[in-house]
Amino acid sequence: MKRSSALSRPASASTSSTRTVLDPMESSIEAFGQYEKITTRLKRLLDQYTDGFAVLKELVQNADDAGATEVRFLYDERANNDAMTHLLDEGMKECQGPALWVYNDAEFTEKDFENIEKLSGATKEHHTEKIGKFGLGFNAVYNLTDVPMFLSRNYFVVFDPHMSHLGRHIKNPAKPGVKIDLNKNPEALRARYRGQFKPFDGIFGCDLRLSKRDNSFRGTLFRFPLRTSEQAQRSEIKQLDYNDHEMRKLLQMFLEGAESLLLFSQNILRVGIYNLPRTSPPGASLLLFQVTKSLSSVGIPRELSSSVTLPTTAGKLSKEEKRLLQESNFLQVASRFMVDLRNGRDDVSNSPQSSVTIEIDCNVTNKGVDFFGGGLPCGHEKTTWLVVSSMGRGEAMSFIMDHNDTTLVPSAGVAVQLISRGLDGYVPSPVVKNIDGVEVNGSVFCYLPLPIHSGLPVHINGAFAVAADRRNLERKVEDDKSCHGVNWNKVLMEDSVCSAYLTLLDDLKSLVTHGDSYQFHLLWPKSSTVQHNCRSLMKSFYKSVANRGFSLFSDGRQWVDINKIVFLDPKFREASEIGHAAFEVLQLHYRSARNTVVIDLPSDILMSFEESNQERTTNKKKYSEVAFYRQCFFSHMLRIPVNVRDLLMLHALDNGRDFDSLIKAHACIPVSPSGKTLKCPSQLVNPRKEVAALFSSNEGKFPFGNEASYLSPQRLTKLEGLGMCSDDLPWSEVAERAESIQRLNMTDPNAALERVKELLRFMERKIKRERMEMKMAPSSKRREYSLQAGIYQRLLQAKFLPVLKKPENFPLPWKGDALQGKQQVLLSPKEVFLQDKKYLVCCSEPLVGISLPRNVEKCLKLDTKDASLSHVTQQIQCAMSTNVNLLNVTKYQEVTRICHEAYKYLNKTVGINGDECMKFLHGKNFILVERRFLSAREVAFELTADCAPYLYRLPQQLTDTFPEMMEAAGVKEVFDEKDYISSLQKIKSQFEETKLDEQTLQVSVNLTLQLSEVMNVSEMNPSQVQKETVFLPDSKGVMRAVSDLCIRNCPWIGDEPDVHYVNDRIPWPTCQLVGVKTRREEALQSHAIGLPCGQTEKLANRLRRILTEYPCEKEILKELVQNADDAQ
């Protein structure tokens, strides 16, 4: 309402003053036109400047443009409840609480005051020595506040775009804010508005008590009251409650990006983050974090030749800091050079360059660690950077001149971190940053870092045309006819940035030492990672390297240009060991060459050359794989070290037909016994076929090596195709070779074992081959194959198979060990079993000790040899004779596996040969349960209580897997009363009159409960049970006969020494069911007349008679109380 009345007053006045002179027709005309509220405009601007690191960067950028050398951020948590009166307006109360303060040491000029009033408009557009657009950047602060205010010199400014906080002080709705001159009527200001100024007192030396004639502040101090939840609900700019969590998150983001913040800054040397806790006085702010920029001891490789006008704030700096500002203000020098160039006072060839090494010191204080939480290391973290600036070679300057654009300056820079190696100098470190778990490369800077990743291993900087939100470089879209900013960025990348990039690489040569610590291509752009916005830079880079003679290639000893290099095709070079060996040979080939250097060029660098259209140049310098073998390898084989020669030769054998003619024409295959002699393939025979049985290795006919080299099946096949002799063996020879193994074993067991392996491999291949040949052969010739079946008897009787040795953790007797002596034992296929029968026969039969191919197993009839019942029973017998309690876990698992395999066999056999199986199992403790072998009488399929070690429930695995065998062996479904009585008797026999231990006592109780359940189900009378003596634990844990026990149900009857009460863990109904007398019965029994009779009584009659012993009325209640008391 205030706004509408304020707006209506001038309109009313105007209308009344002109009404008398208006034409009558004018009454039909009313004011009408487009307009936009300030808050709406700000809201749209914030869509470009989202909350985050960018907000604080804008403030740093503005300070840098203003010539500030220091910026401080202070998170003030004070509520300032003592400053809620004497305000500019009541609406300012909600702006007196927590705030973000931003200080810089530069002062606002009159022009600055004019510019900051403008919402947008490129106020620095023609000031090419400045980067920020003040009006746009400053408005980013509305992300966190609705009422920004600041102090500079003697002026105090408050903005109130909502016009809801300053009230009557807003004179013009088009300018919703106030600017107060603190030196005019300071006494009146102090008297009326001292509460408004009080939060400023003591902040970074500020004094707004207005007690002096000059109340000016040296510098600029912004105060941004954090938007409260109430303000957020009403705000037309942004509905974000900027609470403590948001503020801490903002400062955390700033801290994480601080390392690179000042790399390309012109004036700012120091940025700090402070905190003022809620209850602290204004002068007690705490330093949390500080990043500083200083000259590194490495020095200044390229000093700026032009002088720089330093800002007034530099007056307090040291000589070294001023020198750093001199080198950092490259933008100022570039801007002045462009003016001189336009006026003809200078030439492109004199364009300035700069190269300086700086040190960035990030310091987290102890208070900072507490504030930001764990994970941050306390103390200083220093990094050294090489920063190079350039204006290029003239293309960017020509662009400016051609377009007559005075707003552009071709200034660019590149930065890379340097890692000290002590006396060995420095090595650069490619820029890699982890963002949300993804590693990204360098960033794009517009003097401060932009949230744009270049994909380069360096940071790049330039006066780029940036999108309005400063989060992207300008981009051309499909509907645009042209885009001046995009064209500018392209030429700036191709010229100025590229020039700085190449200069940086050149300067690094003097900073790093020769050797492996620095690969010349480490910092080169790679097409696989470079982002689209920097592709033009990459292409310009490789074009320059390929054509302009930059000496940026190195073999670790010298730097040369592209005209003096050769390299292996990276596809070949990067092939693991092969590439390394080929590179070594190429170096050997060019060792004596004066003007040629062998360099190691990675595939991604070559790809980058090619994608930059420079493949014609690189192809001249590249050795393909075939060219390398023809020109460098085969013609110099005798000069090449043996290990390198063999590696490359094997590669040639393995890789297609490109090298076949070269291999055939050269003596290039090493032969046994030493491999020193080289022969052509036509002079060789295959050691895996015919020659293996006919020749020894010392005759120089076999390729020298092993299956990893020349004797691999693939390479032997390859050599066969190139002329190596090969043939087959008839089955009679195969049988003879099998018989020869036993003889060889007498002199050389290891050689005999190797021959076994070779023979089995040969047999496998032969069987497969002959099967295929038989299928393809005409019927008239198939008889030739069938006749070979008669040779099998010799094979089956030949002793050529080694015996498997007893495994280390096998606990039972091992038949194979019984046959072993000092000499390795070989047996015939008729005498051994396969290893998969181990758990059924190993105690009584030897196992073959080598892996056989499936078709060889079948040929030797081993696949049909099965265990017999005799084998299995012998296995179980050996297992039962083992003391399983003494075995470790591994050995016990082996016994368990033997038993389960035997059970499996018996489970299948019981239906076929049940009588013989049961004859063996009857009465034997063959069931392995909990490290005990039990008989069928000791286990049942169902048991609900723990009765071990007297009775057991058959494990579920055995129940599910072997039910037929267990049932046939006599395992019951459940135990009967005799089993439980017998178990109780065993306990009595074991302990006699001694007290039971706790575990056994609980087992005796469980047995008694199980007995009562059985009796309940079968409706047995106690008299039926007493045919055998039943023992139960008494109250002292001693086993006693049921007849000697009674139930404690009459506490008023005194205890007697010879009266034993049943254990309290056994419920009364259970006790009565198994025949335990009550205490009353025990007492009356001593007065009874007559003798026991053999008659029985039904349970119902028994209960009826018990009731007759209890008087009615109160005795019943007593018994119930007694029972409850006993039950606790």
TrEMBL record:
<dbReference type="GO" id="GO:0030544">
    <property type="term" value="F:Hsp70 protein binding"/>
</dbReference>
<dbReference type="InterPro" id="IPR036890">
    <property type="entry name" value="HATPase_C_sf"/>
</dbReference>
<dbReference type="Pfam" id="PF25794">
    <property type="entry name" value="SACS"/>
</dbReference>
<feature type="region of interest" description="Disordered">
    <location>
        <begin position="1"/>
        <end position="20"/>
    </location>
</feature>
<dbReference type="InterPro" id="IPR052972">
    <property type="entry name" value="Sacsin_chaperone_reg"/>
</dbReference>
<feature type="domain" description="Sacsin/Nov">
    <location>
        <begin position="36"/>
        <end position="278"/>
    </location>
</feature>
<dbReference type="InterPro" id="IPR058210">
    <property type="entry name" value="SACS/Nov_dom"/>
</dbReference>
<protein>
    <recommendedName>
        <fullName>Sacsin/Nov domain-containing protein</fullName>
    </recommendedName>
</protein>
